[in-house]
Amino acid sequence: MNKNILLVEDDIELAFLVRDYLTKNNYSVEMVHNGLDAVTTIQQNQPDIVILDVMLPGKNGNEVCREVRNFYQGPILMLTALDDDMDQMLGLELGADDYIIKPVQPRLLLTRIRTILRRMDSNGHSNNTIISAGELHIDPANRLVKVGGHKVDLTSAEFELLLLLSQEIGHAVDRNSIVQELRGFEYDGFDRSIDRRISRLRKKLSANSKIELIKTIRGKGYQLCTGES
């Protein structure tokens, strides 16, 4: 079955170009052109992925992202015309999974979409055994995380990162491996999105634990701990 994409973009010409390109690559694409319609459409249709422009009439992309995270668990890919760390950081903080800087390069956009959806599909149909690391419990089948018996609400991007680290419990996972797996390209030494995602994930996990469950291993990467290491 074709994956359903909701494209939220107020530049009509660009929206049709992107839609036509993605349609030729076997995706089903619905378009809306303002933030108010975006919220309603996401809630009603629950698309497989949302491509969301930041600068929108009615409600901007960040406002849309924050609001729909109350009822939408799928991936959100932000489009931003601002090559600004603060703008990108805000989108990620509000629940976006990734971002692409405009002007949009269709092949890069397609690669990023495929990477995100492939990761979602593989995790949805892979080993669903509950993973335990001390007081941390991860239920891949239900995308549920608990620390010390308390549920931890994670965005889909944060959950994917935690699941990746859980595959190497007690061992450091380097940034390049994380970036390649979660974002679909090699780490260039400058991208800080993974560091920000680690910081948010660590903060959420530590809210119900006195143990540092994610450690930064200098020169190596990040390590998920059992609480005893």
Provide a quick synopsis of the model.
This protein is an alpha/beta fold and 229 residues long.
What is the fold's blueprint, element by element?
Elements: E1 4-8, H1 12-24, E2 28-32, H2 35-45, E3 49-53, H3 61-68, E4 76-80, H4 85-93, E5 98-101, H5 106-125, E6 131-133, E7 136-139, E8 144-147, E9 150-151, H6 156-166, E10 172-173, H7 175-183, H8 193-206, E11 214-217, E12 221-224
Parallel strand pairs: 1-2, 1-3, 3-4, 4-5
Antiparallel strand pairs: 6-7, 7-8, 8-9, 10-12, 11-12
Features:
alpha/beta; 41% helix; single chain; 229 residues; 12 strands; 2 domains; Arc Repressor Mutant, subunit A; 5-stranded parallel sheet
Can you offer a commentary on this structure?
- With 229 residues, this protein is α/β, with parallel strands linked by helices.
- It folds into two domains: 4-123, Response regulator (Rossmann fold); 127-224, Winged helix-like DNA-binding domain superfamily/Winged helix DNA-binding domain (Arc Repressor Mutant, subunit A).
- Helices cover 41% and strands 21% of the residues.
- It has helices at 12-24, 35-45, 61-68, 85-93, 106-125, 156-166, 175-183, 193-206; strands at 4-8, 28-32, 49-53, 76-80, 98-101, 131-133, 136-139, 144-147, 150-151, 172-173, 214-217, 221-224.
- Helix 4 (85-93) runs parallel beside helix 8.
- The mean pLDDT is 83.
